[in-house]
């Protein structure tokens, strides 16, 4: 790893920060072609997403950053099948998405654990919803809880856990039915800065061990660059792709990477998108 | 741990949940008695606590016998309001169309004084138990609906999305997420409802009945027998408290996870 000096030594500009074109013809992962969404309301049509075309590769850590209200959460609902797109089509593992397909695990900003279920049963919720054999998945649920460091908390009720622990349990819930894709909507937005950094490191480890395709939405540019293989920058509402950046930092990454000139330059570059557009929040 | 020693039986007794309201009750009764003596209030206006107690003692079998029809009508009316109120609330919370048609009318119907239309039930259903049950039901119904609608509506939409994204059917999601989430609100509605159902049953007995505590009150007012009337009031209050307590117990069994019940959970685990 490079020494953590941010000097003005001319970092080879933009050579490795090229815009990446999506590869075609690959059926694995998530493929969006011409996907747009317009909400019909009483006051007329409200466009939320302008046509989007991109491809998230299988096993990729894909992060979306964008200003508030740019339709990031709509994107997540479209991919999970909760909302139908107004135009275009979404392919998940080669299959067209029309209704909830269950091949996703979702993590929201709030842990959203059911207060009447203990931690283990909260993790088992997808199994109950999908009517899968409970017994077969109990061990998986327990080992996932162990993976995130919640061993011994299986019988606790959600309110007995801290915010970070609750969010870890909700990550287990997103993984218990072994989906190919994990969708995360500002998963650590409600946590304090220290816990947030720890959770980021942990999430990278979990992704490395489970090899899931991750689509994560965030407001934090450093968080995006730290976690991602590629970062998608969205424009203001109605959202469209402003740019997609490769993150050429080697893995496994530690928090030290944040002092790497490549890291800081990329953060700067992405930030410029928002300054040219106006405010980030 | 150098904790101060427990101060003995008296403070322990003071900390029991039922002792404090009981002490306060004793205080009120004493104040009542003193007021009658001090201001020389004649017995035909307000009876003394002693007279009421005497009636309660001598007339106990009769009062108990008369309280059964009232209890029966209250419980039936209450169960009906839960049985109809919760599904109606589900429909209102689940469909904007149903809500726009039904909810305003429901609120409107609440401003119709039940006591004014109670004689109508006597005309329709005679002097039996049915008018009382209907009257208890009408009073108990509204709070159940209002609370349950609020409970069903307060579910986090993200939570429902999460369950739906796992391919849960509508019924599954409802049973796993919406219904348990609404239970605390439903129970607070049921608690209001059960005490109002007592009032409803008595209203039913006022307008046309030859049994029940309401009938006893009506009769004793007619003969200026105030001690008996107050004794009937005491019985009614007891009935309300007991029914409320039963619903409260059921709530503790059904939703032990809720914030309001948490202390019990800590001790139990």
TrEMBL record, chain A:
Keywords of this entry: ATP-binding, Nucleotide-binding, Transport
Summary of the function given for this chain in its UniProt record: Involved in beta-(1-->2)glucan export. Transmembrane domains (TMD) form a pore in the inner membrane and the ATP-binding domain (NBD) is responsible for energy generation.
GO MF: ATP binding; ATP hydrolysis activity
PANTHER family (alphabetical): ALIPHATIC SULFONATES IMPORT ATP-BINDING PROTEIN SSUB, TAURINE IMPORT ATP-BINDING PROTEIN-RELATED
CDD domains: ABC_NrtD_SsuB_transporters
Domain ABC transporter: 30-261
Domain of life: Bacteria
Family recorded in the similarity comment: Belongs to the ABC transporter superfamily.
InterPro entries given in the database record: AAA+_ATPase, ABC_transporter-like_ATP-bd, ABC_transporter-like_CS, ABC_transporter_ATP-bind, P-loop_NTPase
Protein name (database record): NitT/TauT family transport system ATP-binding protein
TrEMBL record, chain B:
PROSITE patterns assigned: ABC_TM1
One Pfam family of this chain: BPD_transp_1
Domain ABC transmembrane type-1: 67-247
Alphabetical list of InterPro entries matching this protein: MetI-like, MetI-like_sf
Subcellular location: Cell membrane
Cellular component GO terms, alphabetical: plasma membrane
Keywords for this protein: Cell membrane, Membrane, Transmembrane, Transmembrane helix, Transport
Keyword flag Transcription regulation: no
TM spans (from-to): 21-39, 72-93, 105-127, 133-152, 196-217, 229-247
Membrane topology: Multi-pass membrane protein
UniProt record, GO biological process: transmembrane transport
Main localization category: membrane
Claim: Acetylation is one of the keywords in the record: no
Annotated family: Belongs to the binding-protein-dependent transport system permease family.
Protein name: NitT/TauT family transport system permease protein
Originating organism: Bradyrhizobium sacchari
